[in-house]
Structure formats: structure tokens, C-alpha cells
Amino acid sequence: MAKAVTIKVKLLSTADTGFFYVTKKNTRTMTEKMSQRKYDPVAKKHVEFKETKIK
């Protein structure tokens, strides 16, 4: 059976609030770790979110 092209990743807030988003990522086109600026409702501002593994 073939390996899946898209995987689920967790985007964890760098503000150390513990808030995270779950999104999909295409492993063939995005080989490096994902990072996005998104809204953290716990910190009440936009912060950098970095990719971590889902456990």
C-alpha cells in the first residue's frame, strides 16, 4: 500500500500558552517544517505557530 501524500500536523503556539491548531500538509511539496502567523486566543494576539508532531 502506498504512503499517504498528506499528513496531519499540529501547529503549536510559540507564546507558551499551550494553544494549537491541527492542519494538513503535503509532504511532497513542503519538505521543511511549517510555521505560520496565526491568532492565539489565550494570548489575545497574533503569534508564530510552529509545526510539531501529533501524538
UniProtKB/TrEMBL annotation:
Keywords attached to this entry: Ribonucleoprotein, Ribosomal protein
Coiled-coil ranges from the UniProt annotation: none
One term of GO molecular function: structural constituent of ribosome
BP GO terms, sorted: translation
SUPFAM superfamilies per the UniProt record, alphabetical: Zn-binding ribosomal proteins (SSF57829)
Entry GO CC: cytosolic large ribosomal subunit
Family: Belongs to the bacterial ribosomal protein bL33 family.
UniProt-recorded name of the protein: Large ribosomal subunit protein bL33
Organism: Salinarimonas ramus
Taxonomic path: Bacteria, Pseudomonadati, Pseudomonadota, Alphaproteobacteria, Hyphomicrobiales
